[in-house]
Amino acid sequence: MVGITVRDLEISFPLYHGNARSLKKTLRDSLSGRFTQDERERVVVQALRDVTFTLNPGDRLGLVGGNGAGKTTLLRALAGIYEPVGGSVTVTGHIGTLLDPSLGMNMELTGRENIRLRGMFAGLSATQISAVEQDVEAFAGLGSFLDLPVQTYSSGMTVRLSFGLATAIKPDILLMDEWFMAGDASFRNRARARLETLVSQADILVLSSHMADVMVDWCNRLIWLEDGRIRMDGSPREVLEAYLGHPLEELDNKDTAPDPVLPEPDPAEPHPLP
Ligand SMILES: Nc1ncnc2c1ncn2[C@@H]1O[C@H](COP(=O)(O)OP(=O)(O)OP(=O)(O)O)[C@@H](O)[C@H]1O
User: Tell me: the pLDDT tens digits for 36-83?
Assistant: First the structure.
């Protein structure tokens, strides 16, 4: 059965190898208790720690939290891109990711070849692959670029191809970072309509977003991450109200209101370091 089990997950990144005390002190002060040193004296930031939860079919989990809270790291750990330093991540089911546009894309192959390759990896028949190819071609609107290597695409074109492809083959579990909804307004509208169909079909969704209305509309559970730990786990309204520190009544009139965006978090919290 499709599912995700995360137990005592810890993900850490070594940041710096050396002995410059002033740099270590700066990192220690700015990383609010997430700084440690490993046995090789490297500065290590704990991106996630003590993270435990289970997801079953029907769960649509939203991740909220300030910059550097650990949302992207958690999505990447669920996708198997990051190996846990401690604890475990167990995923059953076919995963579809909308995390990084070039993820799973062979830049030397053409867009069309990438589509066919992805279809073959997904075990689709020749007829199904041809249907996916037509669908992605129509959605991405790349014209003759579809037959050129992906490395010749602009970043916007890569996003369109990657988004079209990831949403053409229905996954059991969809992992999504909100920036896939960025881009120009016409792309955003088309992308949103396409995503809504996919989200309604995927068994499990895990989505990171700063858009409160997306969280309330699409998710039935939210986890608030703070400093790499779960601060709160509950219903979207309950968690958002605690996170924002006020009731969500403005969303009740969202047909007339613009998309509310969650506040930008504490600027003292560093943006992901290179
Ligand atoms: N590749 C990396 N190397 C070193 N540190 C990293 C790396 N990726 C993330 N981190 C650190 O791990 C912590 C969590 O980062 P993460 O990107 O998961 O946060 P986030 O909640 O997605 O933030 P944002 O909302 O800004 O995207 C941060 O302190 C960040 O600096």
Answer: 777 777 778 889 999 999 999 999 999 999 988 999 999 999 999 999
49: closest CA among 33, 64, 38, 37? 33
Report which protein residue has its CA nearest ligand 1's atom 30.
Answer: 272
- CATH number of the domain at 58-83+94-253, out of 3.40.50.980, 3.40.50.11060, 3.40.50.300, 3.40.430.10? 3.40.50.300
How many angstroms does the Cα of residue 267 sit away from the middle of ligand 1? 14
Considering the chain, what is the average pLDDT of its residues?
A: 84
* 130: three-class secondary structure by DSSP: helix
Reported ipTM: the value is 0.96
Q: What is the pTM of this model?
A: 0.81
Where are the chain's structural domains?
Answer: 58-83+94-253
Query: Tell me, what's the pLDDT at 72?
Result: 93
Residue nearest to atom 10 of ligand 1 (CA): 272
17 forms beta bridges with 42
70 alpha carbon to ligand 1 midpoint, in Å? 6
Q: Ligand 1 site: residues with CB under 6 angstroms?
A: 13, 15, 45, 47, 65, 67-73, 270-273
Q: Residue 126: beta bridge partners?
A: none
Q: What are phi and psi of 87, to 5 degrees?
A: 75, -165
